[in-house]
Amino acid sequence: MVIGRPPIRIDYELVERLARIHCTHEEIATAMDVSVSLLEHSDKFLQVYKKGLEDGRKSLRRLQWEKAQGYEPELLRDDDGNFVTDVNGKPILSRPATLPDTTMLIWLGKQLLGQRDRQELSVDHQVTVKLDDQQMSQIRAERQAGMAELEAMSRRYLHPGQDVVDGELVE
Asked: How far is CA 38 from the centre of its chain?
């Protein structure tokens, strides 16, 4: 006479297949009609789950590389290695050719090579500065002094009969 519940058997092949497509512990428990805690207390489940996740990542990476690089068409072959043809004698494709996917190349470059989009920021903004009378007087005085100095320098290069008055050339 057997006492207690029958042991629950975990289908580890199913666990690996579900982990390969990155199902969570909860999703696998639901698919197997068992509790999450039962799965998480099994060392074998954790090992199989980890292997499934790793296999899934490898498979995804392989598909990404193929998509990024594109590939030549593959022709269908029979068991003897001969090309299979249609009724017109044309070879049958088992996989059509694809061009390299630029978007996937850019994404992989960002993920694996640290490449980034350059972002430029342009700000067109007007700033208003409020000055009191004393500050304005100082700026005017400095401007007048600068103009006087500029006029003096300009006179060195003038022809006879020319002059500079208030920054303007006068003949």
From this structure: 39
Four-residue CA torsion sign, 14, 18, 19, 23:
negative
User: What is the total residue count of the chain?
Assistant: 171
Q: Are residues 54 and 82 in the same domain?
A: no
Residue 80 predicted with pLDDT over 70: yes
Mean pLDDT of the chain: 85
Question: pLDDT (tens digit, 9 = 90+) per residue, 132-169?
Answer: 888 888 888 888 887 777 777 766 666 677 766 666 66
**54 shares a domain with 21:** yes
Q: Are residues 16 and 63 in the same domain?
A: yes
In a domain, 128, yes or no: no
Question: Measuring CA to CA, how many Å separate 34 from each of 19, 30, 31, 41, 86?
Answer: 16, 6, 8, 12, 50
* Whether this model's pTM surpasses 0.70: no
Burial class (CB in 10 A: 0-12, 13-18, 19+), 111: exposed
CB–CB of 93/74 below 8 Å? yes
Number of independent structural domains in the chain: 3
- Give dist(CA 107, CA 67) in Å, integer: 12
